Amino acid sequence: MNDTQNRIIRCFVNVFPDLPPAELSNLSVASLARWDSIAHVTLLSAIAEEFSLDISPEDFEELTSYNLIADYVAEKISRG
């Protein structure tokens, strides 16, 4: 696991502290009832802060799973 993934996992664990990190790769809005709109904003705000990213409101709507968020962050940081 690389540093980016570890940082993303840390953000998820901060928002969902009772979930084991090993389960995060399968996590999505649809699979976790507690991932409501407040948790979503909190999570994406933490990700944005952790990686110094500007996440547009349109992107907020699309980033609905761990994998989508991880891919998004990887793409954003690779662009510089």
Quickly describe the structure:
The protein has 4 helices and no strands. The protein is an all-alpha fold and 80 residues long.
3D structure, described in words:
- The chain is mostly helical.
- It has one domain (3-79): Orthogonal Bundle (Non-ribosomal Peptide Synthetase Peptidyl Carrier Protein, Chain A), CATH 1.10.1200.
- Helices cover 60% and strands 0% of the residues.
- The protein contains four helices and no strands.
- It has helices at 3-15, 37-51, 57-62, 66-79.
- It is globular.
- It starts with a helix and ends with a helix.
- The model has no long low-confidence stretch (mean pLDDT 94).
Which tags fit this structure?
80 residues; mainly alpha; Non-ribosomal Peptide Synthetase Peptidyl Carrier Protein, Chain A; 60% helix
How does the SSE layout of this entry go?
Blueprint: H1 3-15, H2 37-51, H3 57-62, H4 66-79
Rg, Å, rounded:
12 Å
> How many separate domains make up the residues?
1
- The strand count comes to 0
- Overall mean confidence score, pLDDT: 94
Task: Give the helix proportion (percent range).
Answer: 55-70%
The largest pleated sheet is described as:
none
Measured by DSSP, the beta-strand proportion falls in under 5%
| Tally of separate helices | 4
Helical/strand content category: mainly alpha
Write the element-wise H/E pattern from the N-terminal end onward.
Answer: HHHH
CATH superfamily: ACP-like
Our measurement of the CA-to-CA distance between the termini, rounded to an integer number of angstroms, reads 21 Å
Which spans have pLDDT < 50 for at least 5 consecutive residues?
A: none
- CATH architectural name: Orthogonal Bundle
* CATH class value: Mainly Alpha
Looking at the structure, what is the overall shape?
Answer: globular
